[in-house]
Amino acid sequence: MDVFSSLMDGFATALTPMNFLYAVIGVVLGTAVGVLPGLGPAMTVALLLPVTYALEPTSAFIMFAGIYYGGMYGGSTTSILLNTPGESSSVVTAIEGNKMAKAGRAAQALATAAIGSFVAGTIGTTLLAVCAPIVVQFAVSLGSPSYFAIMVLALLAVTAVLGSSRLRGFASLGLGLAIGLVGMDSVTGQQRLTFGMPLLADGLDIVVVAVAIFAVGEALWVAAHLRRTPMNIIPVGQPWMGKDDWKRSWKPWLRGTAFGFPFGALPAGGAEIPTFLSYVTEKRLSKHPEEFGHGAIEGVAGPEAANNAAAAGTLTPMLALGLPTNATAAVMLAAFTSYGIQPGPQLFASEGPLVWALIASLFIGNFLLLIINLPLAPVWAKLLQLPRPYLYAGILFFATLGAYSVNLQAFDLVILLVLGALGFMMRRFGLPVLPLILGVILGPRLEGQLRKTLQLSAGNPAGLWSEAIAVGIWVIVAIILLWPLLLKLIRRNRPARSSLLPATSGATEPREVSGSVSHASHRADGSSGDGHSDGDGDG
Questions:
Q1: Please, what's the largest Cα pairwise distance for the chain?
Q2: Which comes out higher in pLDDT, residue 517 or 491?
Q3: 20 to 30 Å CA-CA from 400: which of 51, 316, 321, 455?
């Protein structure tokens, strides 16, 4: 009851005319900059931080919260329409969202992203208000071995499930981990893979890498095939979600929320891991697995819900522990200290009105995002009616602008071009791009947690499974790695059992079973041969 009354007081503060106006400004700005590749909510909050010194802390943080939620949603727009993630957490949305857009279902993809963001954001913010002490206590109880095991599980889950070839998946993951190693060793100070270039000492920014691999690589790939394929305008399709779209979306919204909030609250979490895990889960549970890779709506609904639920979860350790889990939370933490406010266990007691107004503004901003962006879904989708040369010229322009805006270094444009060529070659040889992006994101964190674990165990590898949660995760990792071998053993045993079962019956049944098996194998060979000959004929 105390939580409910405090939240009602927060709504009373956040719904005053001036604070409501700041919430609207924050949501609009966050959505606008989230659409632009590279210009994420963290940079926007940092740029607006000096401007808000004259504002009251409550008004400033209400606007920051609107920017945060707006930026999380805005990144999905370019991911879906242009295959250009505005944030690293929107990378997964580009997989199925852009395929849906190319199939004339851009409005449905944008609509399920908007509604999923609203559902997950509302549930996540409710959990933030009600369950923050419990979630924070659990997050603090986890040690480096558990964090390391969670990251290994995320890497293996995505690499093993996505794509038809594990070898290509692990090759892509190796490229990502290598790119993640570029920079200075945090322990020894030794430069790695910098080739004597001082500008590489700080490593490669994930936004530059994501924009290069997705946007520039896609633009180069399309440009290489423009003469081979007709210049058809992509259809917009029906403007709203149908009954089947709703039926296939509501469960991924809830599952994505269940992934996003706990990971957002973890100090080593963030929005990247749950979006990847949500995508893998939806692919496993979907009744239409054949649509994944060709525009499955579950692949948009789940990751977008996980993205926004993680945004609410991220604020939990920042407010309760003073521990930021991503760049935006770090900037907001700096804003707290600039106002003389110390986040931590005493924040709810010392700055209760501000904290509850901030939490209430998350509900308000979430609702504003829905009513602003849902009607605009068909309007955004009409961007696809632009001719592709103009469309991809605009993509390259905004990709260049976004990459340059990250560090204001012309050297980043060289990196953008080199990695864009890498993205083109990966498409040429069929390497999946997602394991690479995940390797770049998690590689440095993975290394840091591994070093902490080994330091705590004095170099003993047994320290990697020194926690109960870590042991459970390693069991899951072993199952994922051994699953193909187990499937082969099961398939080998099935024919043996099939041949033994009819032996107890009469003499006629074995001939029928043998004939049916022979017929099935003949049909499989025949269908394969037909398909191959048809393909050759079409070619």
A1: 93
A2: 491
A3: 51
Amino acid identity of residue 257, one-letter, is T
Nearest to 395 by CA among 72, 41, 74, 83: 83
Q: Which residues contact 37 (CB under 8 A, 6 or more apart)?
A: 78, 84, 85, 86, 207, 210, 211, 215, 398, 399, 402, 403
* Out of 111-115, 339-343, 457-461, least confident range: 339-343
Which residues face 191 on adjacent strands? 184
The answer to whether residues 153 and 274 touch, using CB atoms and an 8 Å cutoff, is no
CA distances from 133 to 4, 125, 261, 319 (A): 15, 14, 14, 11
Report the DSSP pairing between strands 183-184 and 191-192.
Answer: antiparallel
Closest by alpha carbon to 257, among 356, 115, 88, 84? 115
pLDDT tens, 26-74? 888 877 766 665 556 666 666 666 666 678 888 888 888 888 788 777 7
Cα three-residue angle 100-110-176, rounded to 5 degrees:
65
- Burial of 19-49, coded b for 16+ CB within 10 Å and e otherwise, reads beebbbbbbbbbbebbbbbbbbbbbbbbebb
- Give the type of residue at 108: Q
List, as one string, the DSSP characters of 297-308. THHHHHHHHHHH
Q: Look up residue 463 and give its DSSP letter.
A: G
Q: What is the pLDDT of residues 358-409, one digit of tens each?
A: 889 999 988 998 888 777 766 766 665 667 677 778 778 877 877 787 677 8
112: exposed, middle or buried (Cβ count in 10 Å: 0-12, 13-18, 19+): buried
State the first-to-last Cα distance of the chain, in angstroms, to the nearest integer. Answer: 69
pTM for this model (two decimals): 0.61
Say if residue 83's pLDDT is above 80: no
- Is the Cβ–Cβ distance between 71 and 62 less than 8 Å? no
